[in-house]
Every structure is written in C-alpha cells, then in structure tokens.
Specification:
419 residues, alpha+beta, 2 domains, five-stranded mixed β-sheet
C-alpha cells in the first residue's frame, strides 16, 4: 500500500465515481471495469488487477478485464477451469476473500502457483469474490509482483469493496441488457400484431372479391368451352386462350380466397400419403418436369387437407417457375428440433422440403418473397408464397428458406407433428 492515506482516499473517491457511472451493455461495462482495475492497482500498489467472470455453468473463469500497473489493459485471454484447480474454486465460494500472502503456501493458490502466478512473477494476491444477488459470478484479483507480501487488513477491506462495486456494475449491466431485450421484444410483438391485423383485413376483402370474381370467371370459361364445342375451327385457338386465361384467373381467386378463409375444418392428415397423390397429379400436369419424392416421413399434422394441398402446390409451382427444366426434389421427413437448434422453435415436426436448382435469390429478394404481390416473375401475380406463409402459420408451423445466386432454392416447411 502507499505510504500515506492519500492512496486510500483516492481509491475511495474512485469507488464513489464508479458507483455513479451508468452501465449499459457489455461495452460500457468493459470501460467501467478498466477504470476500476486501474485505480485499484495504483491504490494498492500491486502489479495488476483483473476482473474474472464465471461462465454460466460455473466451471470456468475467464479474464473479462485486466490492468497492469504500467498502463496495459487487456480484455479476454486466460482461462482457468474448475476441473484443473478445484481448491481455488472451492476457496472462492467458501472462504470469500482469498488472502494469499504467499501464493506457493496458501492452500487455495498453491496449485495455481506453478501454472499461473510464478511464471507471471506474482508472489502474493488478494482475490475477492464478485457477487450478484448473493451468487458468486466472478473474482477480482489484486496480484502483487515479486516476493511474498503481507497484506494489511485495510487493504483487504478495500479489495472487498472493489469487488462489491464491480458486482453492482455487473448487476446494473445485466439489468440494462434485460430491459433492452424486453423493449426489442415488445416492439417486435407490436409489429407482428399490426401485420396480423393488416393481413386479417386484407384477407376478408380478398375473400369477398374472389367470390365475386369466381362467378364471373365461371361464365367466361363456360362460354369459351361452348365456342370450342360448337364454333368454327378457326376460332378454337382463341377460345382455348380464353380458357387458359380463365384457369389462371381461377387459380388467382383460389389464392385470394385462401388468404381470407378462417373457417376451414382441420383434421389429422398423413402428410406423405396425402401429398403423394397430389404430387402424382402435378407430375402429369407439369410434364416434362419431373418431381422426385424422397424421405421416409410418416407423420400426421392437424390441418385442413385442402390448405395442405394449396401449400404444397404453390411451392411446387414456384419451383417450376424458377427452373422450367429439370427435376424438382421433394422430401418429406419426420424431425425433432431441440431447444439448442439455432432460431428454430423446439418440437416434433413433419418437414416438407421443396428444392430446385434454379438461379437462386440474393438476400434482398429472399427476405421479401412472402410479401403479398411481391414477385420476381414477369407474369406472376405474387400471391402464391404469401398464401403459403399464411396457411402454414395458421397450422402452427413455420417456413425457412435457403437460397443464393446460382445455387438454387430450398423451401422448408415445418408443420407440428402429432403422434
């Protein structure tokens, strides 16, 4: 310690300044820790002071911030594991302050002496546990360079006070991060609710409009078919064009009605057997494009069968438009996602994957493909994938898309699987 009380007074003033600092996030906590360790090193006249934090399992200590008396500051680096040095971890949790006047002799630090302290020239250390809500979350190490040193009681009090101040800052940082996450979540939920309400209004309007259009289209198509049957051969090609256009319009109205339909009756549907029949029909209609049905999934999902068909058909047609030639790979699998699966809700699912080897999409396009009326197809109406997203969401599922320019596209639909 310094030869008068000026060092203690300076350190006490610094502690007060640290207490007044507001911590928001890890970056600010690094700054606070660096300042606190710097002042502690000067006040106690030790070689270096470091804040070490425990991992979530309490099995590893890692350097969060370490300050040398010569002014060097390091963030991160050395790691100490409980399995290698159990005596030190036990002492930290039971003794509180580790007052090792000689690191080679103290039971808590003896095992660390050869591995850590002595190679760094450290002969004595004051290690104070950092607590948050009564739980040890780390330790502040005040390391003295040179031979053994007898720490005074006042120095021990200062070391503990230093650790307490940093514990308060860590708690403040965690609280700020939690508030930030809650605010972000609230904003995301508000945006999602607004989108749901917008889609609800759009869906009701679309369903009503589609109903009226369907009646008109039926009249147009019926008369065109009569022209083919009864009219002169010279007008047959034009009448067939009308029929083809009417069919496209019928598909569009089906999409519009799907967006607004809420009263569909779901039931347990064996996905593979049901979609196998749909795939066979599509194969004939899309020839010469080939559909390859793979996978061994046999799971059932609770969904309106017509909506499942609509989802599958729209995905296949979208793949067809992306790759007018060549096969489309369809895979149906039973899968289970654990809690650690990145960004995917855990649970049991039937996975329906539709892949094409077309031109693929860039990231800007990929994040917009489920927006109503967004399309990259010159003649597309832009509702197919919006309908897919809506129907999958209603069934409690979700969609993930993998694509890159020149690498094709994979649409993965996850539907909750029932035993």
């Amino acid at each position: 310690m310094q030869d008068n009380d000026s060092g203690l007074a300076q350190y006490a003033a610094t502690r007060l300044g640290i207490a007044r600092l507001r911590v928001q996030g890890v970056t600010a906590l690094h700054s606070v820790a660096a300042r606190a360790c710097s002042e502690a090193a000067r006040a106690l006249n030790v070689r270096r002071v470091g804040l070490w934090l425990l991992d979530k399992d309490g099995t590893t200590l890692h350097v969060f911030c370490q300050h040398d008396l010569n002014g060097d500051v390091a963030f991160g680096g050395t790691v100490i594991r409980r399995a290698d040095f159990p005596e030190y971890f036990a002492a930290l949790e039971t003794r509180g302050l580790i007052r090792a006047d000689d690191v080679r002799q103290d039971p808590a630090t003896a095992s660390l002496a050869e591995a850590y302290f002595l190679p760094a020239g450290i002969g004595a250390t004051l290690d104070a546990p950092v607590l948050v809500d009564g739980i040890v979350v780390g330790v502040v190490c005040h390391e003295h360079a040179g031979a053994a040193r007898a720490f005074a009681d006042a120095e021990c009090v200062l070391a503990m006070g230093h650790a307490d101040a940093l514990g308060a800052k860590i708690a403040e940082s965690r609280h700020a991060e939690t508030e930030q996450r809650l605010e972000q979540t609230a904003a995301e939920l508000a945006a999602e609710l607004a989108e749901m309400r917008s889609r609800e209004v759009t869906g009701r309007f679309a369903a009503g409009l589609a109903h009226d259009l369907a009646n008109i289209i039926q009249i147009v198509r019926g008369n065109a078919e009569l022209i083919v049957q009864l009219g002169e051969a010279s007008v047959h090609p034009m009448a067939k064009d009308i029929i083809e256009a009417a069919q496209k319009a019928k598909d569009l109205t089906a999409d519009l009605m799907a967006l607004g339909r809420r009263e569909a009756a779901p039931k347990l549907v064996p996905v593979r057997s049901h979609l196998s029949n749909v795939a066979a029909t599509l194969s004939r209609a899309l020839a010469p494009i080939v559909l390859h049905l793979n996978g061994s999934g046999q799971g059932q999902v609770l969904i309106d069968p017509a909506q499942l068909e609509r989802v599958f058909t729209n995905l296949v047609l979208n793949a067809r438009d992306a790759r007018p030639e060549g096969p489309i790979a369809i895979t149906i699998e039973d899968t289970q996602l654990g809690a650690t699966t990145l960004e995917l809700p855990p649970g049991r699912y039937v996975l329906v994957r539709v892949e094409d080897r077309g031109p693929g999409m860039d990231e800007t396009t990929r994040i917009r493909i489920f927006e109503p009326y967004f399309t990259t197809k010159p003649s597309g109406h832009g509702l197919g994938l919006a309908v897919v997203a809506d129907l999958v969401q209603r069934a409690g599922g979700f969609i993930r898309v993998t694509s890159a320019p020149g690498e094709g596209t994979a649409m993965r639909v996850y539907l909750p699987r029932f035993a």
